[in-house]
Design a protein that fits this description.
Elements: E1 2-7, H1 12-27, E2 35-40, E3 52-53, H2 54-62, H3 65-79, E4 90-91, H4 95-108, H5 110-125, H6 134-144, H7 148-155, H8 161-173, E5 181-184, E6 188-191, H9 196-215, E7 223-224, E8 227-228
Parallel strand pairs: 1-2
Antiparallel strand pairs: 1-5, 3-4, 5-6, 7-8
Helix pairs in contact: 1-9, 4-5, 5-6, 6-7
């Protein structure tokens, strides 16, 4: 089963959703048959490449509600093992981070990509790191298992930029308007940081559905008129 998770590094609910989905996966008996890939999405693509304190940015958007919103998220985060520090967090454009995640997936595999995703989210929401800074990104990438020289050269170029932007455009075209969004097997879409129990139920349901579909007899001639149906 393939699960594509559309998320942004600057999204606290994406961090919560990642933790909850991982807990569901740990309880899923066929976890070793599930491939998880993180896809890019930018909530604020026009965000500045220069870091600035996050709280004033959120306050301009949400007003005084942000105090209650962040307080609720902090409580939820603690239950998931995340020590959100919104006072230290820095708002910055996340394109560089998404490019790095693209590199991780294509050259190092999804396990390394997941480790890097976790490092980026932790840096942004817990450590107050600047995920738009090439130097800080390089250190996070090396810790996750990427080669330092490759990352340094990659971030100094435009490599991966077009691919990431195309992925984001594809996400919007397929109706992704909020993150996290989980797409199972390319056709079942689940939005939001669902509870781990809900994710587990979804995994089991989709597994049963795909097994039933695979077992159903075909009513078509699979190879006819010079072509073969897949």
């Amino acid at each position: 089963m393939k699960v594509e998770i559309y998320s942004d590094i600057a999204c606290p609910w994406c961090y919560v959703g990642k933790r909850r989905f991982e807990r569901a996966l740990a309880a899923y008996p066929a976890a070793d048959t599930v491939e998880v890939v993180y896809r890019p999405y930018q909530l604020v693509p026009e965000a500045s490449p220069q870091a600035e304190p996050l709280e004033p940015v959120l306050r301009r958007k949400f007003g005084d509600r942000i105090t209650e919103m962040n307080g609720r998220l902090a409580e939820i985060g603690l239950r998931e093992g995340i020590a959100f520090d919104f006072a230290a967090a820095q708002s910055v454009n996340t394109l560089l981070g998404h490019r790095l995640l693209h590199l991780a997936e294509t050259e190092y595999g999804t396990t390394v990509q997941a480790a890097l995703k976790n490092a980026l989210l932790h840096a942004y929401f817990v450590d107050g790191g600047n995920v738009g800074d090439a130097g800080q990104l390089t250190e996070l990438a090396v810790t996750a298992g990427l080669d330092r020289d490759r990352v340094t050269a990659y971030l100094a170029s435009d490599e991966g930029t077009a691919e990431v932007q195309d992925r984001i455009a594809e996400a919007r075209a397929m109706g992704v308007t909020a993150v996290p969004t989980f797409v199972f097997e390319g056709k079942w879409k689940v939005e939001g940081a669902q509870e781990a129990s809900t994710f587990l139920q979804i995994l089991e349901q989709i597994s049963a559905e795909t097994a039933a579909t695979a077992a159903a007899p075909s009513t078509a001639d699979d190879c006819a008129d010079g072509s073969c149906a897949i």
